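Now for a sample.
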Amino acid sequence: MTLPRQFLKGLAWAGYLIAIFCTLLGKDVYADDTDWLKGFNDLNQTGVDLARQGYFYVNGQYYRDEDGTCMSGQQYVEYQIPKEVKHPYLVVMIHGGSQTAANWMTTLDGDEGWRSFFLANGYIVYLVDQVGRGRSPAYNPLGSYTPTEVVTYGMPYVTSAAAEVREVQWSIPEQFMLWPNADLHTQWPGFGTPGAGEPGDPVFDEFFASQIQSRLDPPGIDSQRDAQNAGAALLDKIGPAILITHSQSGAHGFLISDARPDLVKGVITLEGGGIFKDYTAVGAPNWYEDGGRRGSPWGVTRAPITYAPAVNDPTELTIVQDSVADPGKLVRCWLQDPAAPGGVRQMPNLQKMSHLLVVGEASDRANHNHCVANYLTQAGVDNTWVNLADVGIHGNGHMLIVETNALQIAAYVASWLIENMEN
């Protein structure tokens, strides 16, 4: 059942006012804040000298239709190389659903973003627009086309979500309380100011203007295959890299790693990765319902991924739900059934690189994304799963890469990379 917007806001209002009151008084609601930026260069304070920058395209494939020769599957890539490169691997940042590479450029309040942070600290950085979005064009064929093995778009577009949906999910979830930790959300610019995070708020208006159409691909398979093919083509061109993904592109990071396990050296999955059956946030008292949205039949992806013993069809995977939720969690995870014929299948290609999975303290994903980590662990993929609150970073929702403390999160990720991949 969908509850009226104003009713949901009313339910949350008392707790929301308490949080605002504490903030306005200047009291530190989260006493264990950690300054992860200490020791790193902040491009908001210092500049960076570039040796080179540019752009190119990968993965374009020609096909012919009634209009002549066209192209499908191409992906736009832009890069910046600092004069002083300090790290052995370059970084590729992949945006999420309804977004473009702009997510990585600045924060919502206009400060320098993740790309600038990694550049200022000695990383070569590549940004992409997902296939069929932004500067990666999408063409649908006129009538029949050849060769038919080239994946084309058909009806290519579905519009981005309405502003009301973005309020509930991303900008002001604390006013709707569809999940129990939503009231911890404080990092959207203007928190505590009437109208912040809604249409008419200049920050929200700017953000909502950036929301872009997505490919009409209800099963989600072709878009994931395109992302995998384009990512593999990019790595073939630029060499070994660390992938940083957000939200929808979490599955893409796993698929690219599966296709090029010797070129992907690390995967940072921010608020992403698939679950066999998703969970729907419904508010108190139950908070979540099982399987309300489409899931990932291949475990953590919708497109095929490598298992050992081999899996030719996802129905060969026997996936069952845990009998109880993990301690302190609200949902029961879906995992492979150890009692199934052949036991638990492994994911050998994903075992070859380092994995960090990160969620925001106030995000919906904080309540079920651990299931992605559990699935990977069971399949032999060593990984670290972190709720940012546990490392002293507080108040973040799903769009943590553009919220006010985005560079604290970037610095934590950089610290993890140095500790786990360089030391």
